Amino acid sequence: MEMQPETLSHQQLQPSYRLSGQSLAHPEQSPEVYLSSSLPSAQLSQSFVASPAQPSEQHSRFSTFLSTPAAQGYPKAVHLGYCFIPPPMSESDVEPKQREDTNTTQHCRARVRLIRPAYPLFTDILIAEHTSVPIKTFRSSAAEKGLISANYVNVPNFGRIIASEHPSTTKEPFELFWKMVMQTNTQIIWDLSGTPDTKIPYYPDGNGQKILMGSITVTKIETGVYFHNYEIEDSRRSRHYVNRYCLNDWADGQSYPLDKFNVLLDNINNCLPECPHMLIHCMGGIGRTGVVLVALSLLEYRDKLIELPQTIEKLVDSKITLIRFERSPRIVERLSQRQMLIDLIEEWQEKVRIRSSYV
């Protein structure tokens, strides 16, 4: 259902029940790979993938899932070393000049260890290992990182939000996604993955319908105007309830009308007091998801002026870089989505100036 321009309150949510989360595991050591911070994100991805697909080739980028014998358990994530996080690319950097020096350490402070998850939906999207959401499986008593493409992202005033790619309906990643939802006590899933004809449903459609995969059973409890409510049950008969908010009219790789985007931000903000444990995903978990995370981290500038000499472009780019460090170097890699964020902050600042002129 297409989102209407109406702001929600947390009273419209269905109840969720608390389950304890899991602690982070220590990263292992691996060889280091150094990439210049002057590289735009598109070049960064090419350092690991020979020929990244274009948006029109999206479905050819889906990974091929391997059947794993039960005794072997889930496969491990592939560790790909360290890289320096590149700053966002502006219009003037579409054809960047090569730097003469190769001492990359003086160009960027943030260095992150990248992994390819064990069960990725997109094989060319690498994620940060240190914030990868650990999931407890039957293989061991400790939670494991890097099983699926999901990261904790720290957002001011919101705490930790899980940023994830679209779950696959293949048995193992489907099971792991819903295990993660249970173990992290996720109360709301913000689904930005687009129109129904482009989605891969990972949830039952009608009230009372169920999907059973592995040790997880997902049952749809209620269909609302904005939220759909689900019950998740595992093999131990533990139950967890979660709301899913569905946004159907934001196309993949595109910007979004600012009036509708502000409504989405209001809805997320209004749900925070009642439901602080949130998960956001689109398809790859880097474009639309990244735009929302950056906007939430800048939400304070709806009500206050940016102090000079800080420019809107620098402010937006600094937030993008921080979230790239916690999720993926490819966060907000499209120029149109970066420009959307700049236009959003400019609109907020203009309204702040108008309000202050009447004081």
Automatic annotation (TrEMBL):
Domain Tyrosine-protein phosphatase stretches: 109-348
Region (Disordered): 1-36
Domain called Tyrosine specific protein phosphatases: residue spans: 259-330
Biased composition (Polar residues): 1-23
Lineage of producing organism: Bacteria, Pseudomonadati, Pseudomonadota, Gammaproteobacteria, Alteromonadales
GO MF, any single term: protein tyrosine phosphatase activity
Entry protein name: Protein tyrosine phosphatase
Pfam families in the record: Y_phosphatase
PANTHER family on file: RECEPTOR-TYPE TYROSINE-PROTEIN PHOSPHATASE, TYROSINE-PROTEIN PHOSPHATASE 1
